[in-house]
Amino acid sequence: MPDQTRKVEPSFPYGSVRFEDGTKATPPADWELLPPGDAGLTRRVKALGPSWTVQEKKGRKSFSHGVWAPAKNILQARQEVEEKRADPKYIRQMEQAKDRREAKQEVYVEDFKTSILEFLKFHPIHQGFADQLADAVAAHATPVGSGTVARTERIPIEERASAAVIAWMRHQTTAYDSMKIERVKGRRREVRAELAQKSRTILQAYRKGESIPATCPLKKALTTIVQPHDPLPINDE
């Protein structure tokens, strides 16, 4: 079926593929596998004619293994893309687009930090910890392509911020990453809910302005990420 554009899965032996109906096939001899990684080149190859997009699904995620297509199409696409990218006009457009993305990202990071601080609502004596926590969570959650809840637009930024804080605390203040959780449907969700409640209890102490002991897991986590030149917040025991 080399005259059709298809989505296929990788199969054994290496180089063969599996179609949606379960049948296996080997790409035509004059085809080559274009590795993943260059979206612009991949789009151009697909626009030139039939191709087989190789994707492997693991759980809820799909991983690209590249695109099989006629070798001549891949060669032509490479030449066209290289010529386009060497054009000074194109280079200027890319630089301008990059500047716009970076400016947009900076604004989003600041907005996200503000939403985190609004969710935390720490007592003034713990404001230093609130600022550190907001910086730490934003640094982890906001990078483009991070795949975290902070990058989704399906929920309001306020919900993203609260979810990001709870997720950060789950990994930084609990033993979640090393837990052996029973492989029972729904059990991992239950564990995460239990840990989330513990995290909210910890946050409540900071909101009330309570004295925070040195053994507090959040305090310990924040202390470890403080840079040598950064002073610790003045809110000790």
Q: How would you classify the helix and strand content by structural class? A: alpha+beta
The number of helical segments is: 7
| Spatial strand arrangement across the major sheet | 3-2-1-5-6-4
Query: How do the helices and strands follow one another from N- to C-terminus?
Result: EEEEHEEHHHHHH
Mean pLDDT: 90
Contiguous low-pLDDT stretches (5 residues minimum) are: 226-237
Helix content: 40-55%
Main sheet specs:
6 strands, mixed
Give the percentage of residues in beta strands. 5-15%
> How much is the radius of gyration in Å?
25 Å
Number of strands: 6
Q: What is the rounded distance between the termini?
A: 72 Å
Any idea what the shape is? elongated
Give a description of the structure:
The protein has 237 residues and is an alpha+beta fold. The protein contains seven helices and six strands. The chain has helices at 39-47, 71-86, 88-120, 127-141, 157-172, 187-208, 217-225, and strands spanning 6-11, 16-18, 24-25, 31-34, 52-58, 61-70. The chain has a six-stranded mixed sheet. Strand 5 (52-58) and strand 6 form a beta hairpin. Helix 1 (39-47) crosses helix 2 (71-86) and helix 3 packs antiparallel against helix 4 (127-141). The chain is elongated. Residues 226-237 have low confidence and may be disordered.
